[in-house]
Every structure is written in structure tokens, then in C-alpha cells.
Amino acid sequence: MSKQLKIGIIGIGRIGKLHGNNLSFSVPNAKIEAVADLSLNDEMRAWAQGVGILKIYDNPAQVFADPAIEAVFICSSSESHADLIIQAARAKKHIFCEKPIHTDAGRIREALAVVKEAGVKLQVGFVRRFDHNHKKVRDVVASGRMGKPHIVKVTSRDPEQQSMEYIGTSGGIFLDMTVHDFDMVRYLSGSEVTEVTAIGTIKIDARIREFSDVDTAIVLLKFENGAIGVIDNSRAARYGYDQRVEVHCDKGCVQDYNDLIDTAMISTKDGIYSERPRWFFLERYNQAFIAEAQAFTDAILNDTEPSVTGIDGLMPVLIAKAAQKSLNEGRMVKLSELI
Amino acid sequence: MSKQLKIGIIGIGRIGKLHGNNLSFSVPNAKIEAVADLSLNDEMRAWAQGVGILKIYDNPAQVFADPAIEAVFICSSSESHADLIIQAARAKKHIFCEKPIHTDAGRIREALAVVKEAGVKLQVGFVRRFDHNHKKVRDVVASGRMGKPHIVKVTSRDPEQQSMEYIGTSGGIFLDMTVHDFDMVRYLSGSEVTEVTAIGTIKIDARIREFSDVDTAIVLLKFENGAIGVIDNSRAARYGYDQRVEVHCDKGCVQDYNDLIDTAMISTKDGIYSERPRWFFLERYNQAFIAEAQAFTDAILNDTEPSVTGIDGLMPVLIAKAAQKSLNEGRMVKLSELI
Amino acid sequence: MSKQLKIGIIGIGRIGKLHGNNLSFSVPNAKIEAVADLSLNDEMRAWAQGVGILKIYDNPAQVFADPAIEAVFICSSSESHADLIIQAARAKKHIFCEKPIHTDAGRIREALAVVKEAGVKLQVGFVRRFDHNHKKVRDVVASGRMGKPHIVKVTSRDPEQQSMEYIGTSGGIFLDMTVHDFDMVRYLSGSEVTEVTAIGTIKIDARIREFSDVDTAIVLLKFENGAIGVIDNSRAARYGYDQRVEVHCDKGCVQDYNDLIDTAMISTKDGIYSERPRWFFLERYNQAFIAEAQAFTDAILNDTEPSVTGIDGLMPVLIAKAAQKSLNEGRMVKLSELI
Amino acid sequence: MSKQLKIGIIGIGRIGKLHGNNLSFSVPNAKIEAVADLSLNDEMRAWAQGVGILKIYDNPAQVFADPAIEAVFICSSSESHADLIIQAARAKKHIFCEKPIHTDAGRIREALAVVKEAGVKLQVGFVRRFDHNHKKVRDVVASGRMGKPHIVKVTSRDPEQQSMEYIGTSGGIFLDMTVHDFDMVRYLSGSEVTEVTAIGTIKIDARIREFSDVDTAIVLLKFENGAIGVIDNSRAARYGYDQRVEVHCDKGCVQDYNDLIDTAMISTKDGIYSERPRWFFLERYNQAFIAEAQAFTDAILNDTEPSVTGIDGLMPVLIAKAAQKSLNEGRMVKLSELI
């Protein structure tokens, strides 16, 4: 291997450690030069040492100031993302940033402007694009062999509801959960969303009403290329992480189904029993997280455009806001109303 | 066999002959006493004789006047259904009527009133309720073992577009195609639709624009019981008749997939190839047509309520009209606006 | 319809009535002219009248003597088949005969000689060849597109054990059950079996030991074309009728799986549940029985060779005897030892 | 992490590096203390340094002499395994040894005797036992919930033929390929093989005839517990690594099917296309290799019996020899003839 990308990780909570392990053990041309966390504790220190990271900082500024570091992984809490992108860009570090960049579109645009001016690369952490199943569906559609897309469908259901604390600060189902699916429909359709209509209902936990939120939702979408689409969400599927996509095109349909825990089938007089889907995103998308980190590393080392750009970070947030507006006002909302 | 229901078939085009063959060969307690068609021709006559039907009339009135006949199958052209229901009911014949009863809700109500007054039974031909796959999904949901329904989804795509002549007089995609799916979501959810939003696009044949119609559509639905739903339609799926339903509930998901032409799998270095879904409704629902005729026959002979009632004939037409209104006006439409 | 084949059915027990119903209702160019049964009773008479058969005889000789009859379906008890074939052939009737022709190879050869001399056509009732799934596998192999066959596999398990009375007079598992699979491997491989090795065990009901029989068996096969094969059998699969075939060839593998009762899937935290295979041969092969009767009718009317010939009736019996000899003597047995 | 097992790897060819990477990156309680290879070269050195291994030896004796090392992974060429086991045992190191221990049963017994005397633990590298699919099948059978096993079936086909050089020194298909399946049937059935019958054919490459070997084979098996079984093998399946197992029991059947490359389905008028199985053992069993190394590490650290013992290393070799004898002599062979 010729050259390794020197990386600093900012924020070493669950997702920071996940990226840290992947970069250390599964991305051969990446090297973690340093980690930083404002709430650095012994457990984080022990993890970093175990992985073999020598520089352990308690302030992101130390990462930005370190000339050995070429790129950063921003894995801190969501509200800090935009600020850290701006600081990283000014320090001329390439940036991988966990989603969302920010929940305020203005702040996202500001961060993207600084990135552009600094001439650094930015990849946003929409990890599902790197899932082997979804990517295959998208690649078949993008190849044009099925003709033009007509209908784009995404089923996306979490296995179990998160805590009420989490939900209360999540920004609502569309910004928290569906934002991934908004990215997915853009990825699958190869087109921008122009209009959304959302309906929702509370079926899982009545306490969510306090947050003016819903736990079960369907969103209709129109795309610039004339295709139409639909996403359905649930915060509690019970049987695992239900993540299926489908694109109906001129010449037929491309779809995927869930990865199951195993392929065993038990046939008895009561029927055929098989395993459920993998439990949640850590299980389903574990290989996708590696592929995502590998793609970022390769894009920087080869000086190519990252596959998930700043615009890809901005658009799903705008669509989420339009969906929320549609739900609140009981009408179809054009994206152009928000831009 | 104790007793056979004496049936007269009105209209012996494609669907009339289909029911005629099923009643003759596959419904042991049914007997076709007579057939009638205003456009009776030699081919119809030959078919009826081949099946062993002795009374071949050129006017439905002869069927209504025949005291040997206990029930009629109305299989004539759609616009005649309501009139024939009224005449049949007044003649005290039990009625199986192909869908739709009428495209005008007022005329449907009028016919239902006469049926009620006459005290005869009426079953409407929503054959998909008798499909072994859809029925299993519905039975599991209706059993309550999965808890309450949250999301109801129907995928419904025809294999190839019908002729422009057909489409031009079809009443539009919602009254012609989706009407079956509107019945299906009522059947699956066990609840009434309260509100619909429809979007559509033209992706298959631009000539459809002349009829202010679309060939690809998605309809969002809200139900009285708080569930939400979605239907997606295409007039040309290319790979066969795509007929899948899914109900997500408190405890998990119940869904079906398509019946394939056969179960053979061919594995080569290029991948695994298997057969496509059965081609169209005659192939997919052939057993369902038999089950439907059997259910009607049993309901009459056993004096029980038919499983698809007059209200089941009315509601999908109202929903279709709401969907059309939503598409035309670009807004969510409450069913109450139409009633 | 130009012309109908006039058929007489001999033996109107379960299988005779099955063919009778199929010929009456599902094979348009067949017509049942007469039925005959030596144990004719009221129930048989009622069935025949219900189906519209006018000539109801109590002796097969009346069928053979009836000049209106062109072909016979021999559906009587197995031990009478060879005799009836001989009588039918001498009466110049074309013959469909249920399997097996006889359990004595000499008697089969005798019957085939008379058939040949009489110049009538004979089709043997190996109905599985007409199953849509198995036929597709065979057609793909026979097309040559996968190259030459290497390995032929058949899984064949009954859902529940038959009664001990039945088993005691069945001639043993190989002549009773596996005989169908011996036909299937010849059909799939397009080659003759040259050598067999059988092993068996008693796992379901110890009483079978009295008949020196087994209830669970595996048979290894060598074919003239150099392919090898294996069949596994059980008299009690519990989960339905397990009927799967697989042919591995130069370029890959062609296989089928079971038709399930329906395609519904129920996903919960306990896993995914789906329906079991169709219960037994009446459910699994009901369409195949129709296709078989249709093929015979067409072959006679079009003067073409039936697709399952007299040799196809002879060879599986010889293989079954070789398998029994292998089981008894604990060694590989060459077919040439028996011929 | 409390304690890490200090491991020395002997032989750092393809499989040695595979275990090395897994132990380094995916087995948290394992630590590679040293590696040794008699043909140590720069590439091996670079790999070891990259993984962070500090002691890089050119002689296994250095590993055995190193008091810091608690256990060894024997990954050298097959013929050296028995000798190295003996040396490792005498040096009081716990042993993980790649399969086969030796092709000579006497040498295996000798090695096992030394292991026993030394009181060290030995695990043999039958990695398929750790595959999530096969393990699930076995666990269901072993739980007893399906009752007793009747029929055990293994389909095991390589994607592409190895080189003639490899095949010529492989010891024949049964010792090279089927040996894994012989382990699998023992694992699935929970019983010892008592008798085998093998047939084979040459269908892929005629040059294999020079080695008196075959490339396509089926092996029949009888088990001590009265179950019977069958394995079918091909050296060139073309469509990927076909690895399926099936156990038919009192109450039904437990089986698995292949992991596919992805779950995408493409439906067009030509049928439904999906991906083929994963290509070969590195792709299919990559997680199983990790689970295997984890299980060994845990067994040593927790002082429990390894899940694949020395007897598990011996028996498949004996069965392979019986299969070869059966093929050569054209008869059933009892294992007792070889012991």
C-alpha cells in the first residue's frame, strides 16, 4: 500500500468509535492520527489506546492545529456539526461529517460555502448508499438498462422505539428518521424532489403527542424527472430493521429485500419458519459503514469527488422540513416554498 | 349434493363466460338455468350449448321472468349494471354483480335502496378478496393476533397497457384500476377511508394526456381507525401482474408476494433466474373467481350475508372520485366532501 | 372445437373420478362416452350422472365392445392393469393406464408387446412429468443450454404415512413411492439408469418391519450418459408433500422448490412465518393431472407419440426391483442383472 | 478487556494471514505475540509489521521456545501438521490446527496421544461449523425440538476447479473436498458414520483421470443412530460456492440455503433475476473464520473443551478413506474395516 490518509476523529461516542474501529481494522489506506473529544473520559482513552491511537486530545482545536492530520471525521453531537465543518475547512482538512450537517438550512449553506472557499472535500454520512443491496438497486437503475424510473418506494422501519428523551430532541420523525429515506430516494431516482405530502399517525406510544410528533408516517414525493415516490416509516416494526427499496421503471422493477439473520428454514406441520431481518442499523449496515469510510479515504487519496456531497447533506433537510410543513398544514408542499 | 342454486347469467362476453364455466364445472351446488345477452350471437350460443345450458335468451327480461331462476350474475357492460340490479331485485332474484355497480354514486345508492326494499341479496364482484394470498393476509390481520393495523400498502400494476379506446372510456385510472385497490384497503384494514391524496404521472403513453388521465399513480389514505395507507399503480409493469399487499401492525408485518409462473430456479455464473409473476388477472385470480362464485352460491343457499355487500360496491367508487378530485385540485380531499 | 376424443373410463374409484372430472370439465377436446366398474355402486352411478355420462357399465368388457369408444383410461386396481391393457389393445382402443402397469416385468413386457402388435397408443400415468415446476426444470435441461447433466437429485417425501394395510400390499417403498422418482430421474436426465444402490431405515413406524420394508430411504443412481443421481424418500414429512428436483449441469444448476399453500409472510419478533407446501399429490399435482389428460387426448387426436410411453412404464419397475435387491443384499446392483 | 490469549502463528501463507488478520482485528481477547514461517520473506514480514506483530521468526521452534506464547495456530502445509502438533503439545502450547491433521490415520492418532498426554487443548479447523446458517440448522436439530434425525443431506460444490497441480497432490476429492462435508454430517447428525458408499464421475476435466480421481461424486452414509445421509460434490458449480445442508427429522425438516451476494431482484418480461451465491469459502465463510478463532480463544481462556476436538479431526479422514475404498472397489464399505 503506497500511502495512508492521516485522519483525526472528532467525537468518540458510539458512532466515533464505530468509525474508529473500521478505519483502524478494515480500511487499509487510512490511519487514525488522533482523536479528540470535549468530554474525554477514561473509557474513551482506553478504547483509543487499545486501537493504537497515540494522540488523544480533549479539544477538536488540537486536531485542526495538527499539521500531520489531512482529514477529519466529525462524529460529535449533531448541533456542533456545522461549526466544526467550518473550523475544519478553514484548517484545510478534508471532512467526513455524520448526518445531519444541521437542522437549519441557512447554517448548512453557510458551512458549505466555507468548504467551497477552502477547497477541501466534504462527504456526508448517509451510510445507506453504501449498503450492498440498495447500491445494487441504484446501480441497475442508474445504468439505464431498465429505462427511466416511474415509481420510487422506500420502506423504512426501526425495530424498537427510541427513548422519549431521544425523540423529544430529535427534531421530529422527518428530520430524525425519514431524512435517511429522503437521501435514499434522491440516490435511487437520480433526481431532485419538487413536492411532498406527508400524513402521519400515532400508533406506538401516545406520549409522542407532547412533541407534536408522529411515530408512523407516509410521505408522497414528486421528482423533477416526472417520477413519483413514496416512503413509509414506523418507529417500531418489532421484527427487526425493515429496510427495503423498490424502483419501478420503463422495463420493469428493481427492488431489494431485507438481509435476514440466517438462511435456515424450519418446516413443520405449522408452516415454514425463518429468521427475521437483522436487528438495527449496526447489524444491517455494518459493512456499509466500512464501505463508506473506504470511499471517503479513496476519494481524498485519489483526489476525486466524494460520492455523498454537501448538497446531498442539504437537500434531505429541506425535504424533511417540507414534509413537516405538509403534516402540520394538511396540504401538499412545494420544495420551492422553502428555498 | 342436496340442492343447487338455479342461476341466470346476463351478459356472456368474456367475464360472463368465465363465470359460466366456473359455475358449470367448479361450483357443485350451482346450476346455470339460463343465459341472456342483448347481442346474442352464434359463438355465444355455441359456448352455452357446449356447457350444457338449455335456455339461451336474447333479453335479460326473459331471465327475470323465468320463475325457475333464483339468482342472476350480471356480467353485461358496466353502464347497465345499476339498471339490471334494479330489475333483478324487483323480480326477487338474488344478485351477483360485476364491479362497478355504476360510476355515479347516486345511481349506486338508488340501486342499493331497491335491493334493500326487495329483500334480496347482493354480492359485488371484487374478486381479489377471494385470492388465497390476499385473503390470508386479511384473515391474519382480522384475527387480531398482530394487534391493530398501522400501515396498509397495496402494490397493483397491470402487465401491459390496455388500448387507448378502452382507457378513453374507462372513467380514469382511479375508477378503472385503483377501484379494486380501494376495495382491498377497506378489506385489509377493516376500516373506512376518510381522506385521500393522489399524485400521478404519465410515463407509459403520452396519448393518455388527451383524456386528462395518468398511467402511473400513488394514492395516500387515512382510515377511520387511525391507520394510514398507500396504493401505487402502473398501467404497464412489463413483468406481469404485480399484486402485493402489506399490513404493518402493532406486533409486526403481514404481507404477500406474487404467485410466480413456476418455482424453477436456474443458477449460472450470471446469477439466478426465476420465472416472473403470472401474467394478468385471468391467470392470477383464476382460483379466486371460482371461490367468489362458490361464496355467493353458498351465501344464497345458506341464507347468510354475502361477503362483499352493496356498501362494498359503493365506497370504492366514492374513494376513486375523491382521488380524482385530489389529483385535479392538487390537495388532500376528505371523503365527507363527497357524501 | 373440431373433434372430441370419445373415452371410456375403467375403474371409478378416487383416481378414476379425478380423471373423469378433469376430462369432463378441463379437457375441452375429450368426451367421456362411458364408465365401467366391476364394483359399480350407487355413489359411482350418482357421480357419473352428475358429470353427465350416459353409459354406465358394470364390466370393462362393455367398454371394449362399444364401437363409439376410441380410447380408455385404466384406473382400476393395479394388479388388473396389464390384463386390461391387453384387452383394450386387442379391442383397438388407445390406452391411458395409471401406474404401475404391473409389478412383474415379464407381465409388463407381455402387455407392451400386445400394444405394439395392435398398433394402438399407450400413455402411462406418471403425472409428475406434467407438473409445471418439474417440467420447467426438465425443459431447461433438455434444451441443452446448461450443457450436459452431472448430478440429478430428487427429494420426494409424503406428508403422512399411509395405513399399514396399504403399505403391506404396496410392494415396498421402491415399487410404491420411489417408482415415481425413478421415472422422474429418467425424465430429468434424458438417460437410462444402469446401476443403483439403496439404503433404508425405519424411523416412522416400527410395524413396517413386519413387511421387510423401510419408511426412509436414499437411492444412488448411475446413468448411461455418465451422470450420477440420488433420490431421498420419507413416508412422513409432516410439513406437506416435499417434491423438489435438481439437475446440476456443465454451466450451473436447475432446480425447483415446493408450491406453498399461499405466499403470505408474517414477520414478528419471533421470526418470519410462511405457509407449508401443498399437502399431498391431489393438491400439488392437480393441474398436472389435467395437463396429463390433455396431453393424452392431444396425442391421440393428432396421431403423435404419447409423452410417457410403455418403456417409461417398464423401466421404473425394473429400477425399483434393483433398488430392493440392493437394499436386501447390501450391495450395488446393475440393472443388467435384472434384464 | 480482562485478559488476552497470547498466540503464535506458524505458517503465514494465505490461511495464516487470514487468521492473523481476524485475531488482530476481530477477536478482542486474542493477541498475536509472534509469527513464524520456514520460508519467511519480505512480503510476510511487511504484513506482520503492518498488523503490529513484533516477533517475526523464521522457525516454528522459536515459537515453541517462547514462554510468552500460550497457544499456537498451525497454518503451515498439511503434511507438517501432525509433527507440529506434537512439538507444540510437548512445549505445552494449546493448539489450533488447520485441517487435515494428516492424511494417515496412524499419524493422527499418534499426534492426538501426545496432545492428551501433554494436557493441552486442541481445536481442528473445520470452519463450516461456525457458519451462521449451518450452525442454526445444527442447533435446531441438537435442541431435540424436531425429534430424531432421519435423513442428513449436504450439497457442497466449489465454484471453479482448482489447478491440476493442486488436484494431483490433494489426496483425491474425498480427502480434499468431502472431508469438510464428512465433518458436517457428523456435526449435524450428532452421530458417527458406520458405513459409506461412494460413486463418482468425471464431468469437468478429463485430465483428472490421470490421478484416478473424480470431479463429481455422491456419497451415501449410514449413522450409528439409524439415520441415513447423502453428500453430493462438484469441483465446478460455475455459479458460486453451493453450500446447503438439510436434516429431515421426526417432526419436519431443517435446512439452509446459500447466502447471496445481495438481495436485489430485477423483474422484467424475461423473468426475475437475482444475484448468485457468494463466490468461494473466503466470501461465504469469512464471518465463520472469525467465530472459529473467537471460539478457540474463549475455550482456552475459560478452560473449556474446544468445540472441534481431535476426534473430530480423525473421523472425517477415516470416512474419506472409506469413501475412496468404496469408489475403488464398487461396494459399500464399513468404517469398522478401517479401524
Determine the structural class of chain A based on helices, strands and strand pairing. alpha/beta
> What name goes with the CATH superfamily of the largest domain in chain A?
Dihydrodipicolinate Reductase, domain 2
- Biggest sheet of chain A, strands in spatial order? 12-11-7-10-9-8-15
Assembly type of the shown chains?
homotetramer
Helix content of chain A: 25-40%
**What's the CATH class label of the largest domain in chain A?**
Alpha Beta
Q: Give the total of beta strands of chain A.
A: 15
Any idea what the shape of chain A is? globular
Low-confidence stretches of chain A at least 5 residues in length (pLDDT < 50)? none
The total number of structural domains of chain A is: 2
| pLDDT averaged over residues of chain A | 96
Examine the secondary-structure arrangement and name the CATH architecture of the largest domain in chain A: 2-Layer Sandwich
Instruction: Estimate the strand proportion of chain A.
Output: 15-25%
**Helix and strand pattern of chain A:** EHEHEHEHEHEHEHHEEEEEEEHHHE
How far apart lie the N and C ends of chain A?
45 Å
InterPro entries (chains A, B, C, D): Gfo/Idh/MocA-like_OxRdtase_N, GFO_IDH_MocA-like_dom, Myo_inos_IolG, NAD(P)-bd_dom_sf
Protein name (chains A, B, C, D): Inositol 2-dehydrogenase
Family (chains A, B, C, D): Belongs to the Gfo/Idh/MocA family.
GO molecular function (chains A, B, C, D): nucleotide binding; oxidoreductase activity
